[in-house]
Amino acid sequence: MRRIHFVPLLLCLLTIPCRAEPPVVAKLQAGRETVRIVAFGDSITGVYYHTGGRRAWCDMLGIALARIYPHAKLEMLNAGISGNTSAQGLARIDRDVLARRPDFVVVMFGMNDAARAPREQFAANLQSIVERCRKAGAAVILSTPNNVYANPVRPIDRLAEFAQTVREVARRLDAPLADCYAAYEEVLHRDPLRWKLLMSETIHPSMNGHKLFAEVMAEAISGRRVSLADVPPPPDALRFTLARLRAGEPVSVIAMPPYDRIVPDALRKLFPAARIEATPWPAEGRSLADLEQWAKRIRKQAPHLVVVAVPAGAGSASEEAFIRSYCWVLNWSVDFGLSKWDRLSVLPSVTGSLSPEEKRREEIARQVIAGADCQCLGRGPDDRRTPGEIIGDWVRRQAGIQH
User: Fold this and answer.
1) Which residues pair with 313 in a beta bridge?
2) What three-state secondary structure class fits 310?
3) Which pLDDT score is estimated for 315?
4) Domain total in the chain
5) How far apart (Å, rounded) are the C-alpha atoms in residues 326 and 339?
6) What is residue 58's predicted lDDT score, i.e. its pLDDT?
7) Taking a C-beta distance cutoff of 8 angstroms, is the pair 403, 393 a contact?
8) Spatial CA neighbour of 77 closest among 46, 109, 50
9) Listed residues 162, 187, 222: the one ending a domain
10) Which residues of the chain, if any, have pLDDT below 70?
11) Exposed/middle/buried for 101, CB within 10 Å: 0-12, 13-18, 19+?
């Protein structure tokens, strides 16, 4: 199966301004002063489980702008709160946005408004947000949200209407627009598999989708395209686990076999006196739907490390069901908000050879895992190491030991 790359798209409507105000762009180009950018929105803006609990589009936008403006001094501030409508955002704008004295505010509301607010009120709230930011001296970009899987709470047609409302407000106020909804629509119609890999669940995008957000937003700011396809997950995948081990504190691991044995053994080689409790996550002979159901107990247990190692034989009724269940296996493996424990994904090639169909599913799984912003261990074609050696080498690298 070919590798699917996430590439930037030029999707701003020609009748809507799609570049930030020149003074802000000049400040980015000059790199003499810090440019403070606030990402303002709901859970799709904030840092939650659907992107791995460590980063979201705010962080990706910072990376994109740093590539376009290599001399820029950037301070990225995330003001996204789960469940917020534009009315709730407006109610907290002084505390969460204006008090930070931003140069730039990127505004993305609509997903929750579409579920419970009139379009007219949504438009009025967006206008007030833009006016309040401009009065405080900040430039503003309005962003449409992503499209979604079919669902009764946020019907696709209604969400499309709210995206159109954002465009209308941007046009009326002469505000730059990042039309992320249009970007998602184009991907959906051109490559449905790639669109599924942008999503973490019914309404929330994965990190793959957040990279697309940031590419569209960066182009709206700069007029230039940039790709974030090569941005890897955070490198410190064992930060909680290693901190506890170095402090002599006990560690709790939940892992799919055989990694409920292999991972603790690798950790004990570095920390012989470590107190490690391993809980097996039953996986052999289970479907992905079964693994998804079991994963729902992880948050209550609040472990220090979760190892996801979906076996090659764990199938689903369809490709879409495979992707959606795999996403939920990963989603339930982290806390709801900011991450509080570590997570590692191990592909089935580490434990054995795969059939052509299993290799195809592994490639899809690899990209689902990328969307969870999670480190992923696999086996290259010339890698003859045992699973224990692969895990052991990775653990040593995480601990800063090269050999």
Assistant:
1) none
2) coil
3) 85
4) 2
5) 19
6) 98
7) no
8) 46
9) 222
10) 1-22, 403
11) exposed
Query: In Å, how far are 24, 57, 81, 208 from 369, measured between CA atoms?
Result: 36, 17, 24, 10
Q: What is the residue range of 66's domain?
A: 22-222
**Tokens 């992107």 belong to which residue?**
51
Cβ contact 137:97 at 8 Å = no
**Tokens at 146, concatenated:** 């992503």
pLDDT at 19: 60
248 and 328 part of one domain: yes
Check residue 23 and give its pLDDT: 83
Same structural domain, 168 and 259: no
| Residue 40, CA distances (Å) to 131, 142, 172, 363, 384 in order | 14, 10, 20, 34, 48
165: domain CATH number? 3.40.50.1110
pLDDT digits (tens, 9 = 90+) for 50-68: 999 999 999 999 999 999 9
Q: In this structure, are 203 and 268 located in the same domain?
A: no
**Does residue 51 sit in the same domain as residue 199?**
yes
pLDDT tens for residues 37-51?
999 999 999 999 999
Q: How many residues does the chain have?
A: 403
**Inside any domain, residue 246:** yes
**β partners of residue 254:** 279, 306
In a domain, residue 228? The reply is no
195 Cβ contact list (under 8 Å, min separation 6): 184, 187, 188
